[in-house]
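Troubleshooting log. The previous structure file for this entry was overwritten by mistake, so regenerating from the original sequence record. Sequence copied from the archived sheet and checked twice against the printout by T.R.
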Amino acid sequence: MTATTFTRLPGRGVLALDGADVIEFLQNLISNDVERVGANISIYALLLTAQGKFLHDFFVAQLPDGRLLLDCERDRIDDLERRLTLYRLRADVTFTDLSNQYAVVAAFGNTALAALGLSTDPGNTVTIGDGVAMTDPRLEAMGARIIVPVTDLPGALTGQGFAPGEVAEYDAMRLSNGVPDSSADMLVDKGFPLESGLDHLNAIDFTKGCYVGQELTARTHYRGTIRKRLFRVDVDGPTPGPGTPVTLGDKDAGVMRSGQGGIAMAMLRMELVAQSQKSSEAFIAGDARLIAVTQPWFGENTPDDSGEKTTAVPADQS
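Regenerated output below.
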């Protein structure tokens, strides 16, 4: 990808948090270290159930005026605010839905980070007008995320050499990198974050201390008990819709999630991915054949025949 492109993400909303207790409040709830957030750093984080299951994911950034912003799913923002409110008790924290005032924008392409004055460090953040731009905390290849007042678009970016693009372009880039799209790929109150590789996408700080769902998340991480994972799959045939069963031979292998244009995401049993890669046998979903692709950012938790956690070995040491 050579063009430097931006597109507003209409599915994303913005929830502002303010008050004297906001840092301590979030620090006790979410999976990443809120104390790191500031003018120069933003993070990606999760809100989990007490059993460590996925509820919400979001990006946490700080506005120039000091308020914290959560870049989250727009059609689930009321649920996020409701769940946060349950934990507020007497804490000095206020919530304001700014989704009509602020836009979430993705900027991507080979020169996107440099054009915004961002480094390749995950979550590196700069001020842009009355908003912020950040290197996507999950993965450098995802480019930048920008949260700016709606009134600043598109001038804030066209003035810096960006060309407007379509959401489908961003989604194709996301899928090619095997990065999950919130509840489109991660089942609410059912899936575990490590099954979607979120430990390798900088969503979890394993040293920060307690948060909701921390105990099971840490235990799973250190014991390596992942049996299934979210994989990018290359599709030969019509792209199956979300929820379509996936098989390998006569075995139930998993289920489809989001996808478009010959690339999709699927939750697959790890031992069957290993079997498929060794035998070159394709998975089947609907009328399509699927090939699972292991992303470079997977690091550990790559599949072996048993589905147990394994450690990736650099090519020059294998």
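The chain has two domains: 5-176, 224-318. Archived copy saved in two places this time.
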